[in-house]
């Protein structure tokens, strides 16, 4: 097969100053490990390729040297445009230290921008990012002081403001599939997600660039079901084979992620009682029959566990931004996957659906919120974290439920007889006078009339036209001592302030969903 090359030769096809687009997701998911490893090896041995621009739509890496950390060497990388940086801590530190130009664009914007580049369009017109750090009137997605160019601008169209994200050529697209035939057609049967593979491949080819794909195995020409081909051979230039390819950094192959088998509905152990479960339980009370839902990483993924414990999982549809619809989202490192999905679609189309308002509900984490209802998840303490799919999802879901503990670093709680006790307070409040970076704009949400809540283990707030309103506190909590004195701003206190449902704090099913059908 003429397109097959040894992994050791990959570096020959990457040139100095190239722009690379890597299709992958955090936790080593769909990570073209061998390709990236050998690009790094080429640089360390020969000093080339250097001065690269690196693009990734999702967070990539495994926190163990993979993903974009393969490019975290002085001189190797000049610029990174990526949605999320946590999985590649070395290159994140380089960004924080101004050792390269660091930009963060939203995950959905990146996937859709790849499609625009493929179609020869000047850029992407989107409302996503207005009023946030992505807005060029604020920070323009720049994460450090050495950024030299503007990747976006605000335009007027039909009497309305829009973000315009500019196209740029892609010299190399790098991705992973499962099987390649002799013509270079690629299937994804052992991958739990497809991501933006097609858009990135088309963008590179129509930019005059190349596409390099890593696969697990080869097959003869004419043996593939054409409906299974995700990246056609006309888009593929080179193929690297890695028979030891894993689904993620911790999973060799889990067939329930791909739909090959349906895993039995096992009765899993209930979440242990604690702050995370309390937040997830109160958040889950916002669910309703038939809701189409997105769950963010961290505390929000506990909502799926609560739904299972309460027996309502079959009455809602959970989705993951990487393209999974239905089933139960995986947790932790495998977060991009879902057990027993109903469908796995291209990530680009998932974000089209999200951006248009297809989500009824989303549950998202937050690191900070302020008196304007702004939320920060993307940069704090100088650390470059990135926004992932948060900007698309939070700005467009019909209802947003932000989930977090009230304080961080050392918080310890207890529950007794349906009441909450603060055993040790966290060192840092998340209720700030002003967030370090605006990842979600409270002003924009109020202009849209969006339904926004903030749920913590001891207090619940709503974003209303008049500002941030405290609506509920936990039983056992002192309003002044345990809430108000620990906030950097004073919220509006509802005239109908009430206690959170005591059932949330009892170590038994809540019984909140008896008529949930």
Automatic annotation (TrEMBL):
- Presence of keyword Transmembrane: no
Q: Tell me, which GO biological process terms does this entry list?
A: ketone body catabolic process
Identification of the protein by name: Propionate CoA-transferase
Q: What is the lineage of its organism?
A: Bacteria, Bacillati, Bacillota, Clostridia, Lachnospirales
Q: Which PANTHER family did the record assign? A: ACETATE COA-TRANSFERASE YDIF (PTHR43293)
The record, for Pfam families, names: CoA_trans
Name the family the entry cites: Belongs to the 3-oxoacid CoA-transferase family.
Which source organism does the UniProt entry give? Enterocloster bolteae 90B8
Checking SMART domains in the record gives: CoA_trans (SM00882)
Q: Which UniProt keywords apply?
A: Transferase
Catalytic site residues?
321 (5-glutamyl coenzyme a thioester intermediate)
Source taxon at top rank: Bacteria
């Amino acid at each position: 097969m003429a397109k097959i090359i040894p992994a050791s030769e990959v570096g020959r096809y990457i040139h100095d100053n190239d722009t690379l687009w890597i299709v992958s997701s955090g936790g080593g998911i769909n990570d073209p490990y061998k390709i990236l490893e050998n690009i790094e090896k080429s640089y360390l041995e020969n000093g080339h390729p250097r001065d690269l621009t690196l693009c990734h739509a999702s967070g990539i890496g495994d926190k163990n040297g993979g993903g974009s950390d393969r490019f975290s060497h002085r001189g190797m990388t000049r610029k990174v445009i990526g949605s999320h940086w946590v999985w590649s801590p070395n290159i994140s530190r380089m960004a924080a230290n101004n050792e390269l130009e660091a930009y963060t664009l939203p995950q959905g914007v990146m996937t859709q921008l790849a499609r625009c580049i493929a179609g020869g369009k000047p850029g992407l017109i989107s409302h996503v990012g207005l009023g946030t750090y992505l807005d060029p009137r604020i920070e323009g997605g720049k994460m450090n002081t050495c950024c030299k160019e503007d990747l976006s601008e605000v335009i007027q169209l039909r009497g309305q403001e829009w973000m315009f994200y500019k196209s740029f050529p892609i010299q190399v697209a790098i991705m992973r599939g499962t099987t390649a035939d002799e013509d270079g057609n690629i299937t994804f049967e052992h991958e739990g997600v497809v991501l933006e593979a097609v858009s990135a491949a088309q963008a590179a080819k129509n930019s005059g660039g190349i596409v390099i794909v890593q696969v697990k195995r080869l097959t003869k020409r004419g043996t593939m079901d054409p409906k299974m081909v995700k990246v056609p051979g006309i888009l593929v230039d080179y193929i690297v084979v890695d028979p030891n390819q894993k689904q993620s950094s911790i999973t060799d192959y889990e067939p329930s992620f791909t739909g090959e088998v349906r895993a039995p509905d096992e009765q899993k152990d209930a979440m242990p009682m604690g702050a995370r479960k309390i937040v997830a339980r109160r958040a889950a009370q916002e669910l309703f029959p038939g809701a189409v839902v997105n769950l963010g990483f961290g505390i929000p993924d506990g909502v799926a566990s609560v739904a299972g414990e309460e027996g309502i999982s079959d009455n809602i549809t959970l989705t993951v931004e990487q393209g999974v619809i239905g089933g139960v989202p995986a947790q932790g490192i495998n977060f991009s996957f879902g057990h027993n999905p109903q469908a796995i679609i291209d990530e680009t189309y998932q974000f089209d659906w999200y951006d248009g308002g297809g989500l009824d509900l989303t549950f998202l984490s937050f690191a900070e919120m302020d008196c304007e209802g702004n939320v920060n998840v993307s940069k704090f303490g100088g650390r470059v974290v990135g926004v992932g799919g948060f900007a698309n999802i939070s700005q467009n879901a019909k209802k947003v439920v932000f989930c977090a503990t009230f304080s961080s670093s050392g918080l310890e709680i207890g529950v007794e007889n349906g009441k909450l006790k603060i055993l040790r307070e966290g060192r840092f409040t998340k209720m700030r006078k002003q967030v370090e970076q605006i990842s979600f704009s409270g002003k924009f949400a109020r202009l849209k009339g969006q339904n926004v809540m903030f749920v913590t283990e001891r207090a619940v707030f709503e974003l209303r036209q008049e500002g941030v309103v405290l609506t509920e506190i936990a039983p056992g909590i002192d309003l002044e001592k345990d809430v108000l004195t620990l906030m950097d701003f004073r919220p509006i206190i509802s005239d109908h302030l009430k206690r959170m449902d005591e059932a949330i704090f009892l170590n038994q099913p809540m019984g909140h969903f008896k008529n949930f059908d």
